[in-house]
Amino acid sequence: MAREAFHDHLTGLANRAQFLDALERAMGRRHRNGEPVAVLCLDLDNFKAVNDALGHPAGDELLIRVAGRLKSRLGDTWTVARLGGDEFAALFEGHVDALAAANSVLDALRTAIVIEGVQQLVRPSIGLTVAASKGDQTADDLLLNADLAMYAAKRDGGACVRSFVPDLPVPWELQQLTDPPAGQRDSAAASGGVAMDSRSSDGQDSGNEPSRGGARTPPAIWAGLGLLALGVAAFTLSTVVRDHAGRIVAFDGVLYSMLNISAAAFVFFRAFTVRADRLSCLLIGAGMASSAAGDVVYATRVPEGLMPSVADVLYLAFYPLVYAGMVLMMRERLKRVPPALRLDALICGLTLGALSAAIVTGPIDAALQGEPAAVYVGLAYPVGDLLLLALTAGMLPILALGHVQDWRSKGVRMTVAVNLSMVNLLDLDLVDTIDRLLTAHRVSPEQLILEITEGTFANDWSRSRKTVFALRRLGVRISLDDYGTGWSSLARLQDMSVDELKLDRVFVSRLAEDPRSIAIVRSTVALAHSLGADLVAEGVEDEATLQALRRYGCNLTQGYVHTPPLPADELLEWTNRCTPAASMSDLALHPDLR
pTM here? Predict the structure, then answer.
């Protein structure tokens, strides 16, 4: 009974009660004998996504494995505890190099943990504080200081260690603490903050999201304002990833600084390196002055070994979007307008290059070992995430979503679709991110369609299927893209429900001369209707093909037969010409970025 009262039943570590008791005793001995006390607080970033994607048993197994590594690396001289959820803490009495110990823990957790045959990369945020031999700090003060340092690590992108300093901002998660430590009272009062405790009565941490306030203005923001002062009105700075042949295969971190005539909407890029093998990017949207909704934080991660070179970052590109009509043939009206990404310019900028060299450093190894580059980081990964962020944050004007708000103000109802790559489906943060953003920004899940290709399941079908299932539980619609060209389509449909099938253009383009293509199209139409799903025929180029699809019962078509790709400023005029006024409210935006 005593062990159950003072130990965590899942990991076998000390629980919160035992840790707090040990901390109180240690602080009492410190006052008597002058021995310092060190405390580490560790939180697994976005751990909820593990439970969403793989289930709670897999999440429990991950916690057990993390606990084992903590205990193994710190040894018996530290008191290691699980405070609740995915939060751990460690306590040491006496003189110790606490920073070295924290970095040792970080190194131990950098090695992937295999759960259900899949490697899981753990991203711990670690906060560190030390109570010196003299001072009036209490146990509560010390634990709060470690928490503040941990949230500072989260603000810096996670997967790092931060030490407590007296002027750390108090994040909103901790702003109800009734008695903040002396070092924090003045700073909280000066900033107008109110201290609070976000933990529930059972000691569980109610959230682990990054702070949205209190941080100092990043240098990149001032650099961006300086560039705007030089007259740069619209540009994109991308870190470019190349394959082994030197071809550009992906743009990861994207810097947008756009001027909108009606309102100033700034989106800036800040990049930093963790060692030399990982690049994290934060996209911070200042938004419209009237929204005052706080900063929007966006992060992407590049797989190990795909760090771009400093020279690559010199590329400056501006991406306009062009749109093509998708027509609902049953009622002869425009249904969707899928945009395509077009590269209009690739220019080197000395000013931007100097900024890039200052923020991106380190040796580079971009070899992909002969594997298709798009499997690792395709354009659909960063651009898709950016579109999702733009949709839910309501920012102006970022790619296609800059036009959504304008069209919506004209009474046009939008459905937004985003391509997901294999990297997205294997991302443990995906479901949690979508759930949080849809809830926070009051976007109906039915407004979002996530497009997946059959090839994205090739790496890990079981895990991808769980992710898709969790997404559908949110109410998000799923579209199976390039149907018929991937990995055993019928087997996928047997195990996974989808809302839409997109028939690949290779079958559509041969309708006029290939009887087998006709048979495939007709059977696919019947299959989709039997499953209660929509069928979209891609690549419809001529009237004869359009009429054939009409006869076969295909209800959605997309291609040049309706319209060539149009810039956004011409699209609304085109819809007014081709769409009856009564149907304008049914127009939908369907991003289809490759």
Answer: 0.40
